[in-house]
Amino acid sequence: MRIDIITVLPELLKSPFDASILKRAIDKGLVEVHLHNLRDYTENNYNQVDDYQFGGGAGMVMMIEPIDKCISQLKSQRSYDEIIYMTPDGKTLNQKIANSLSLLENIIILCGHYKGVDQRVRDMFITKEISIGDYVLSGGELGAAVLCDTIIRLLPGVLNDETSALTDSFQDGLLAPPVYTRPAEYKGVKVPEVLLSGNFGKIEQWREEMAHERTQRLRPDLLE
Ligand code: ADE
């Protein structure tokens, strides 16, 4: 898979891909992540990417021209399955969206800033609009990092058996059950007996029950 990210703040997106699982996935060649600085696509002398909005009002708007140049250049090199715009008014990211995006070959992610992008960018280029939650970030970069993390960890070969995504919360529509490690007793608080029993049938049944109980208690909306 190849992910191209268009941003005015590439430095904000370096560290998420430079550690742990995402770095390993890139090093293993399972995903390519390319950062594109939008300012490299401006024509004007000030490397300006935003301007005042027509009709007046507070806040700058990202201009269409540099975005068009960047997207068009990328599209001339390969075809893209989705061109995603990170925005608080997009569809809220969930596991189902991450699962379906992880099956794609090439995607572009455009990070918004200021008051957002000129509407014509959304109308002419964008195929999907994604929000990471009902709150406003200073820009789309942190959202893009979250989105990439959810996608990349699902790519075949990225996680091993121990970290398999199949047992994650949300993969079966439920929250994950509680987990424990050594010591079996800490300051008088014991690990549930069943987990030490060696009876894998019983352990599996207990995990299922706990997943249901936890989901019912913390996220009943998932069971509806
Ligand atoms: N940009 C600003 N706020 C955002 C959000 N909640 N999700 C994605 N991109 C954003």
Automatic annotation (TrEMBL):
Gene Ontology process terms (BP): tRNA N1-guanine methylation
Binding site for S-adenosyl-L-methionine: 112, 132-137
Top-level taxon: Bacteria
Molecular function terms, GO-annotated: tRNA (guanine(37)-N1)-methyltransferase activity
Annotated EC: 2.1.1.228
A GO term from the CC aspect: cytosol
Root EC class: transferase
Keywords per UniProt: Cytoplasm, Methyltransferase, S-adenosyl-L-methionine, Transferase, tRNA processing
Pfam families documented for this protein: tRNA_m1G_MT
Sequence ranges assigned to domain tRNA methyltransferase TRMD/TRM10-type in this UniProt record: 1-223
Catalytic activity: guanosine(37) in tRNA + S-adenosyl-L-methionine = N(1)-methylguanosine(37) in tRNA + S-adenosyl-L-homocysteine + H(+)
Compartments in which it is found: Cytoplasm
Record's function text: Specifically methylates guanosine-37 in various tRNAs.
Family under the similarity heading: Belongs to the RNA methyltransferase TrmD family.
NCBIfam families: PRK00026.1, trmD
Subunit field text: Homodimer.
Protein name listed in UniProt: tRNA (guanine-N(1)-)-methyltransferase
Upper taxonomic lineage: Bacteria, Pseudomonadati, Bacteroidota, Flavobacteriia, Flavobacteriales
